[in-house]
Amino acid sequence: MAEKEIDEHSGIQTTGHVWDGIKELNNPLPRWWLITWYITIAVSVVYMIFMPSWPGLTGYLKGTRNHSERENVAIALAALDEKRGLQMQQLLQVESVAAIENDPELLNYATTAGGSIFGDNCATCHGSGGQGFPGYPALVDDDWLWGGSLTAIQQTIRYGVRSDHDETRYNMMQAYGGVLSRDQISDLVEYVTALSGREANEAAVGRAKPVFAQQCASCHGADGKGDQAQGAPNLTDGIWLFGGDRVTLQETITNGRGGVMPAWTDRLTNEQIVALSIYVHTLGGGE
Questions:
Q1: Largest CA distance in the chain
Q2: Which is nearest to 253 in space by CA: 225, 220, 230?
Q3: In CA terms, which of 63, 98, 218, 282 is 20 to 30 Å from 202?
Q4: Contact in structure between 220 and 235 (CB atoms under 8 Å)
Q5: Which segments of the chain does DSSP mark as H helices, in order?
Q6: Is residue 242 domain-resident?
């Protein structure tokens, strides 16, 4: 048996390990550390008795309490679904924005649920805040092609615009490239520019006035303020779906426009559509 070595400087026994001439002392662990360690061992043994612990070949040690977090989560989710179901049913009875504004809890639920649905399904086109992009309407202003009431928004979401649903909203900006001459289209560009309050060629505006009355007024109105019943844009407010610069206007009049909004009636539940409609309405531009 090897003789124990005592370090001459500290008087403590060494472990016999030496690294680069440095000897390791065999210092005992602090008492507080050992006590803590023993307590954790005792607690773990008690835990193993009462709670699920060691896995086995055919299952796991379930413990005497037969505790299951999976069951607890399932119960909590079921309770949450039941609560949400009641709130969703309340949404179906909402007939106006004023009605839901009088119920702060329901309004908070609708905007929270609607915001989540919007983020999952609508933000790709309309932007995360509903700000829109060229060709995709902004939902935060007060300019609505088909109306910004709660009912109108629901109908647009439910059936879409120029979608494949039988009840879809439908309109079409005709391509006038084969109907009007290039000069007539250029004059119309000036006329539409003037309608939105911008500086335009007066002579061109004068030449385009009868052309607008004959070709465009049936949809956009004689004053150019549009018609929500047809989904025809207001040309006087300076808000443009595809852009209001002369180059874009020339392209719009020449080639026409016809974007598509999908119908969501087969993808979202009635309750989800109502919640989404309320959220869109509260973005700032609802009528």
A1: 118
A2: 220
A3: 218
A4: yes
A5: 31-50, 69-92, 97-101, 104-121, 123-126, 150-159, 182-195, 202-215, 217-220, 246-255, 270-280
A6: yes
Long-range contacts at 175-180 (CB < 8 A, ≥ 24 apart): 175/254, 175/255, 175/256, 176/215, 176/253, 176/254, 176/256, 177/254, 177/255, 179/215, 180/211, 180/215, 180/253
CATH number at residue 270: 1.10.760.10
What is the value of pTM for the model shown? 0.69
Q: For residue 87, what pLDDT band results from cuts at 50, 70 and 90? A: low
**Look-up of token digits 């309309």:** 126
Q: Which structure tokens are listed for 75? A: 């119960």
Q: Name, in order, each residue with C-beta under 8 angstroms of 212's C-beta and a sequence gap of 6 or more.
A: 188, 191, 192, 224
pLDDT tens digits for range 223-234: 999 999 999 999
Q: Please check whether residue 131 is in contact with residue 239, taking contact to mean a CB–CB distance below 8 angstroms.
A: no
Same domain, 48 and 149: no
Domain carrying residue 107: 73-168+261-285
